[in-house]
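Morning!

As promised:
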Amino acid sequence: MLGIEDCLAEVMAIPGALDAVLIDQTSGMAVATGGGGRHTDAEKSAAGLSEILRATLDGLAVASPGGTIRIRDMIITTDDGHHLLRPLETVFDGPLVIHVRLDLNRSNLALARHRLQALSDCLITT
Amino acid sequence: MQSVENILRGLADDRATGSLRLGKAGTFYLTDGRVTYAESTAAPRVEDLLTASRRISAHAVRQARQAATEGRWGGEQLVDKGVLTRGELEFCVLNAVLDAAYFLCGATGHRPRFRPGELHWLGPQWYFEVTGLFRECKRRKARLDETWPSAELDALPVVPLGRITAQRVVLTPLQWEVLVGADSATPPADLAQKLGRPAYSVLLAVRQLASSGLLRMPESEPGAVPAAPARPAKPAVTSGPSAPGMPAAPDPPAPLATPQPPDTPDLLPKRTRGDTKIPDAGATSSGSSDWLPAATGDPTDLNLLIRLRNALEALT
C-alpha cells in the first residue's frame, strides 16, 4: 500500500535511478517528481514523455494486426542512459505513467523493470 | 470584483484553513493556505468518480462520509477498508481537484464566501499550492486550445458523424467511451457525469475527436448538411405563412379552407391555396399578383427588398 510520494521514493531507490516523474497521460501533467530536477523541467518533460507514449501507442496500434494496443512498458536507450516508461491503468482516468531515467553503466535494466512492476502493483490495484 | 485567483492567493498568504464557496459554481477547500479539495457543479466529484469505477458502492462512500471525523477523515476510512489504495485515493482526489479547479478558475458572477475551519469530509489527501494550481489550469486551457482552437463544441451535445471520410481511426479509451456514450443530446459536461470521468478529460477528448473530424460541427461541415437546412427551413416556413398571414388574418374563411387538400404536407398547401384563393380574397388589395403586393405595404419587406437588391448589385 503506497501513496504517490512514497512510490516515487521507491522508484528512486532502484539502483542507477537518476530521476523519476509520475505523469498523468490524459492531461500531460507531472503529478510528482523524484530526485534530480537539476537539468530537467518536470512540466516540459512530462508533456514530452506523454507525447512519446501517445505517438508510440498510435503508431503501434496501426501497425498491429488487431488495431488495438496495450503497452506494458517501454525502454528507450540513449547515449546517456535508459528511459523506462510504464503506464499504469487507473479506474478513474489516466493512465498514469511512471518514467524513470537510469544510468547507463550503474543500472540493471531487468532488475529495474522488475522493481517497477512490483511498485506499480502496490500503487494501483486493477 | 476580485478574481478567484486573487482571493485564493490572499487566503494562501494568510495560511488560511476553511472553505471558499463561490456561489453555486462550487467550493475550494484550503488547509494551511494550500488547496486540498475543490468541487464544481461542472465536474464530477470524487465520490462520483469512485462509484462510477464500480470499485466502491455509493453506500460505502456514504458510510465513510458520515463516519468522517476530525482525526479520521473519510479518505483514511476508505483506504483502511481496503477498497482502494492510498495511491489510488490520492490520484483520484488529485484528478477531481484539478478538474473542478479548471472550471472554477473561470467562474464569474458569484459571491465568494469564506468559512474558516470548514473542511471536506475526505480530509486533506493532496496539497496544491495556489500558484501551481492556477499554472496547471492555464496549461490545461492552452492544451485544449492547441488541440482544437474553437470552444463552439464545449457546450453543445456531442454528435458523432454517422459516416466519416477517414480510412482509419485510432482512438484512446476515453475517446471510445465518449463516442459510445454520446446520444446526440448530451453535452460534454453531462457526458462526463454519466461516464464518471473528469469533465476536463471528456472536454479534451471531444476536442480531439472534433479535430479528427469525427463529430458533427454546428455548421459548415458536410456532416451538418442534414441539420443545416432543417434549422433555417423552420424560420423560413414560419415566416412564410405569417407574412402573408398578417394581412390575411382578418378573413377567417381562408384557414377553414386549408384542410381541403389533405394529401400534401401542412405547409405546402397554404401556398397553393394562397395562389388559388388570392382572387377570392381580392378585398385585401392584393389583386394583381400572388405575394408581391402583400410585400409592398410592409416597411420590413421594403427593407428586405432593398437589401436583396444591394446584395444582387454587389454580386454583379
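Residues 20 and 62 of chain A are 30 Å apart (CA to CA).

Hope this helps with the figure draft.
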